[in-house]
Amino acid sequence: MKNLRLKSARAAKDYSQQQLADLTGVSRQTINAIEKGDYNPTIKLCLAICKALDKTLDELFWED
Amino acid sequence: MKNLRLKSARAAKDYSQQQLADLTGVSRQTINAIEKGDYNPTIKLCLAICKALDKTLDELFWED
DNA sequence: ACAAAAAGTAAAAAATACTTGACATTTTGT
DNA sequence: ACAAAATGTCAAGTATTTTTTACTTTTTGT
Known about the structure:
2 copies of one chain form a homodimer. Chain A is mainly alpha-helical.
């Protein structure tokens, strides 16, 4: 399923997918796929994304 | 680096590495390697571990 | 309306998470 | 002390993430 919290947090910082990709050291397609919910990133990448967006793991990646 | 919070949370539930592996659907070696800090698991596996141990992502996997 | 930037998507290759099997060492219980 | 259970570790193979390249569609600004 889509990760709208991530999309929203990225928008709040006014970052493009490319900018967030550069900040976290991955490709734009990877960011796109994570937002789209296609597959599960590694915790290392999740942490990098959280730090780039000033969010916690629970805020962006927790699911019930 | 070692993930002692994970090791501690597992001990609090009195689970062996094998038991936690069974609960989360991975091999014992994978749990062992994560505790040892050898590599980065996927967020999906992190979530499964958190749920098995009644912990949040931030409690077990956040790093500063 | 138009151009430029951003986002969506796909296939093949590369990198790495995870498994399986096997054995050594440490810990636990009696 | 002894046996059983738990943990640590390694190597080779499999599964999945991530990259690269490329193209299409949507959004944004003038």
